[in-house]
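Data card: per-record layout.
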Amino acid sequence: MDAVAATARAGKATIYRRWDSKLDLVIDSCNQLVSRSIPVPNTGSLAGDLREFLLAFATFLGFPLQRTS
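The structure for this 69-residue chain is written out next.
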């Protein structure tokens, strides 16, 4: 949290007001990256949407998966 505060040029108290823990900060950061990098699929079915999202997410993380459909 010290490094985050220093990079943001903010006090640690400011950082902790926004995120209660390091885990909360990491989760929020990942959510922001994913929302900017992975389009919302619309295949017409929940199962298809989930499959497409998870494939894109795995690729985003650097673990390309093979399509099975």
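Known properties of this structure: The chain has two domains: 1-37, 40-69. Residues 1-37 form one domain.

See the next section for split statistics.
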